[in-house]
Design a protein that fits this description.
Blueprint lengths: L5 H6 L4 H5 L23 H7 L27 H7 L8 E3 L7 E10 L2 E11 L3 H14 L4 E2 L6 E11 L2 E12 L2 E11 L8 H22 L1
Antiparallel strand pairs: 1-2, 2-3, 3-7, 4-5, 5-6, 6-7
Amino acid sequence: MRSLPLPLALTARLSPVVVLAAMGWALTSGPFAATPAGENDPAGKNAAASGSDKSAPATSAASKTYPQAPAPCKGISEKTVKSLVPGAKAAGKEITSTDKAIRRTCSWNALKGYDYRWLDVSYEIKDSDQKARTAYEQRTKEASGGGVVPGLGDAAYSVVNLTTDKKQQTREGVVIARASNALVVITYNGSNFETKKAPGTDEINKGAIKAAKEAVAALVDAQ
């Protein structure tokens, strides 16, 4: 589970937008496995006679609930962006992806006064529900110390961590939600560069969950 490195967060006090906008996750994903075309049937006449149809094999792509990732910067409402990331541009900034059909991420960040906030929403599309379930289980296993979020997608999990570097605290919340063959991942963190204290656990957790609910709803509405 990614945590925001404090040295970069401190640098953000001087130039938050330029520095932090370059901090997107390394978005690397392999392409979907190609569906093999139907092979020639040396006994085609016999197959036709028996009524078998080899021209329309079942494919995992055909069974996908969500065939592609939606526009991530539309996943969070302007009202919520203003509430969670005061001072941020509502439009957000989409992070470059190797394949937008598979994974798309949008980020918002701002330093207002001495308060800094960062919000990410990421959509990841898997080949099947099972692959999404496996990825979800692996990530939630790695993110120990959190808990289940009821009523969000098919399954959802949230975790909040506090890090301290040179007396500067940063608290980060992550929500991972699965909806059929899609994963929705929210990252929300904050710091105060005057007090060197981080926002409370409840504030960060509730903010991340609120963003996750909107992002999952946007995924459903986009199809």
